Amino acid sequence: MSRFWKIALIVIAVLVVGGVAFRLLHKPEAANGGYGHHREGGQGQQASQGGSGQGQSGGNGQDNAPVPVTVESTVKQNVPVYLTALGTVTALNNVTVNPEIGGQLWTINFKEGQAVKKGDVIAQIDPRTYQAAYDQAVAKQKQDEASLATAISTLDRNQQLVGKGYVAALDMDTYRNNVAQLKATVIADEAAARSAKVSLDFTRIISPIDGVAGIRNVDPGNVVTTTTSIVTLTQIQPIYVIFSLPEQNLETVRDAFQNGANKLEVIALDRTDSHPLDTSGFLQVVDNQIDTTTGTFKLRAQFNNPDSKLWQGQFVNVQLRVQTVAGGLVIPSQAVQRGPDGDYVYKLQSDQTVAMQPVTVAGEVGDSHVMISKGLDDGDQVVTEGQFRLKPGSKVQALKPGQVPAAPAASDADKKKWKKQGGGRRGNGGGGGG
């Protein structure tokens, strides 16, 4: 075979292989209607427009369906108005117990963290040296009292003899001065004995208050002095809570404090506001100055603290009731939405549509409600659940309180679109496999 025919056969083989490859690569387009551009532009476009029309009609049908929402009516009730702040618990009395005298510490008579009563002996210092000093003072007093008795007796006898000339008048002055001197000595002895008795009593370290003992600072056997701290006692029943409020609340608090017979209610809550720790508090003191650095003023409340839930140094949330609004308008707090122009609610209309109603929130009522001062009337119904699907004028299906609106169902157009996308992927996958 000549060279010409060899080259010709090679070219023909290349063309055949290229054609087959081209056919295989473009087979999915043929399966999906890649051939026949006129048919795609006509019937295909018509089908597309028909599908679009169906989708629009399905969407309009879905938009016109009532949106299920939960609604609740406004309620009138007496609403306490509270001012809130962060407070610090402070002990009513906080005493660091130091010995009044020095000596070896014999015993510790309390347990750390234990409640002690006023007058309890909480520690004992070696009393022997002080007992001896007291005994000496008492003995000296008795000795001088005996000398005084002798001097008084001598003065009385000589007083009877001076008129008879047996005793000189000059000696009588000496006898009288001796009696006066011994009386003064006895008085000094009595004072010395009392002083020794006080020192002896100081060997018994007494609790000065009712409180809770902290961690002891010294162990038995150590020699203590008047500068040695034995323990710190904290009185927590009753107990104080100190907090601060902005200066713009000063007039409100002072007026309520004066008009409320100085018994404004104060509630202490934990840091998460989940539950109250003590509700027995009342405002005791309003400070006499405003802190120019922070623009706040201090207040102090007193709590009975019967269960010892308040502890010194603890941070608590404080609620100070300054007044009670009679007939306040209350709605669930979840009904209030925040918009660019302020707070608003969706108000249910008589035609079962909703309107966006601006409101003014006067304050919180408990954990789940708020008081509205402007924007609503008694008996108005507001949407509490399902607001995310609403817009002004939306038609709604009002559900009873406590019922949760159902999730929106998929429209027919969305279902068709999903099926079309799914079918297309399956068609492409099948073409690739072929």
Automatic annotation (TrEMBL):
Key words, A-Z: Cell inner membrane, Cell membrane, Membrane, Transport
Domain Multidrug resistance protein MdtA-like barrel-sandwich hybrid, residue spans: 93-229
Cellular compartments annotated: Cell membrane
Main location: membrane
Keyword Nuclease in annotation: no
Amino-acid biosynthesis keyword on record: no
Ranges of compositional bias, category Gly residues: 50-61, 424-434
Domain Multidrug resistance protein MdtA-like C-terminal permuted SH3: 329-386
SUPFAM superfamilies linked: HlyD-like secretion proteins (SSF111369)
Ranges where the Multidrug resistance protein MdtA-like alpha-helical hairpin domain occurs: 134-203
Domain of life: Bacteria
Chain residue ranges for the region called Disordered: 33-67, 394-434
Alphabetical list of Gene3D superfamilies matching this protein: 2.40.30.170, 2.40.420.20, 2.40.50.100, Helix hairpin bin (1.10.287.470)
InterPro entries: MdtA-like_b-barrel, MdtA-like_BSH, MdtA-like_C, MdtA-like_HH, RND_pump_MFP
Pfam families assigned to the protein according to its UniProt record, in alphabetical order: Beta-barrel_RND, BSH_RND, HH_MFP_RND, RND-MFP_C
Residues in Multidrug resistance protein MdtA-like beta-barrel domain copies: 238-323
Family: Belongs to the membrane fusion protein (MFP) (TC 8.A.1) family.
Descriptive protein name: Efflux RND transporter periplasmic adaptor subunit
Protein species of origin: Dyella caseinilytica
